[in-house]
Specification:
Blueprint (H helix, E strand, L loop, with lengths): L2 H9 L3 E4 L2 E4 L3 E6 L10 H19 L3 E6 L6 H10 L3 H18 L15 H13 L3 E4 L2 E4 L2 H7 L3 H10 L15 E6 L14 E3 L1 H13 L3 E7 L3 H16 L5 E7 L2 E3 L2 E2 L10 H7 L2 H9 L7 E2 L2 H18 L6 H12 L4 H11 L2 H9 L4
Parallel strand pairs: 3-4, 3-9, 9-10, 11-13
Antiparallel strand pairs: 1-2, 5-6, 6-7, 7-8, 11-12
Helix pairs in contact: 1-13, 5-8, 6-9, 8-9, 11-12, 12-14, 12-15, 13-14, 13-15, 14-15
The structure holds zinc ion (ZN).
The site of zinc ion (ZN) has 4 residues, from α9.
């Protein structure tokens, strides 16, 4: 097989599988990634999702299509309000500083700039229109200046039992005990004004957008009714993604809202979820201080994307050795062109990075260079 034949074979690969679903790609691939709430420094758990989205985008590009990534910034958020209040700063100035640190960490991890980076506070009008449309569709109702979305369809699509849905709703600020709602699992598309939070005018009085509605409004504004891939951390599956999709579908009538989903596995420490409240955050900037940032990137990618995993310093040391092996392999000569095609096949088969890196190290030369270049490990 000649190099030209290999390139023709890769160009002829018309799509990839993701989470067991076939994703045919022709030209443009719309990837919506739930971004950060800019209230704290980037930890490894957040970074893992964005590195996987970047690897997906690079794989799409390898297949000759154009990835169009939209990664929002949730700069209207109750958690952000609280953090800004503690810091004694206006929420928008506070968010801008945190955003700067996030951008620096993403650049260090070689995550490419995204095509769209909508900020929630610029999409308040769209949330109001979304609320209006959901009311017109009979999917929402007004109580005391708030607009609530009927949560039943979101819960049904999640497949969760009621008890789990209520627990997760409470955990993610869904306020199941809000007495104004018809059902505990309904959520605010528009939340009536409360002290300590930013507020905007709306047909229902002063208030602010709800979290799921913000993302739905941004995704619909940027991409229209349907996205090819919706990505985010596994912990966003419910309630955030379930409500986002349910609202989008109720508003547009287009189903399904997402052709496929990428839920990146949760990063744990000694079995526990990484969280500020648990005091076990591993920060990207600390990892990149003592190791090449490409090793941090490889550590994230060198595993199935949908599985939870435990971080330990030994994993980073191992990734650094693997990276060194890959770099050394790039200098070898006499690679079989078929090995390069094999790497493309592995990446398009559910982003099998670990096997692609193995093949790159074993075959060396063009195969190793292909892995390193495609995955941004250079
Ligand atoms: Zn989102």
């Amino acid at each position: 097989m000649s190099e030209t034949q290999v390139n023709a074979e890769i160009a002829g690969m018309s799509g990839l599988t993701l989470g067991g679903r076939q994703l045919a790609v022709l030209d443009r691939v719309r990837i919506y990634s739930c971004g950060i709430t800019p209230y704290d420094v980037t930890h490894l758990g957040h970074a893992a999702t964005f590195v996987w989205v970047d690897a997906l985008a690079r794989t799409v590009r390898m297949l000759g299509a154009e990835p169009e990534v939209c990664r929002n910034v949730t700069d209207v958020d109750d958690v952000l309000d609280e953090a800004a209040r503690r810091a004694g700063e206006p929420y928008d100035a506070f968010a801008a500083v945190q955003q700067h640190y996030f951008d620096r960490d993403m650049a260090a991890l070689n995550v490419r700039d995204v095509a769209h980076e909508p900020r929630a506070r610029r999409y308040v009008d769209q949330v109001i229109r979304l609320a209006d449309g959901l009311l017109a569709a009979g999917a929402a109702y007004v109580r005391n200046g708030s607009v609530y979305f009927h949560g039943e369809s979101a819960v049904r699509r999640s497949g969760l039992d009621l008890e789990t849905a209520l627990r997760l709703s409470a955990e993610y600020a869904g306020r199941p005990d809000d007495a104004a709602k018809d059902d505990p699992l309904d959520v605010a598309v528009w939340q009536a004004s409360e002290s300590g939070h930013p507020a905007w005018e709306s047909p229902w009085g002063q208030g602010r957008p709800g979290w799921h509605a913000e993302c739905a409004a941004m995704a619909l504004s940027v991409f229209g009714p349907v996205v090819d891939v919706h990505a985010g951390g596994a912990d966003l599956r419910f309630p955030h993604h379930a409500y986002h999709a349910a609202m989008a579908e109720a508003f547009t009538g287009a189903r399904p809202y997402a052709r496929t989903w990428l839920h990146a596995g949760t990063v744990r420490i000694g079995g526990a979820k990484m969280a500020k409240s648990a005091g076990n955050l591993v920060l990207v900037r600390d990892l990149a201080d003592g190791h090449p940032a490409a090793a941090v990137r490889l550590m994230i990618l060198d595993r199935p994307w949908d599985k939870d995993w435990d971080y330990s310093p030994g994993l980073l040391d191992r990734a650094e050795r693997r990276l060194e092996d890959l770099y050394q392999a790039t200098g070898r000569t006499g690679t079989s062109p078929a090995a390069v095609a094999e790497i493309a096949r592995l990446l398009r088969a559910d982003l099998n990075v670990a096997a692609a890196v193995d093949t790159g190290i074993e075959e060396g030369g063009a195969a190793a260079r292909s892995v390193a270049a495609t995955l941004g490990l250079t």
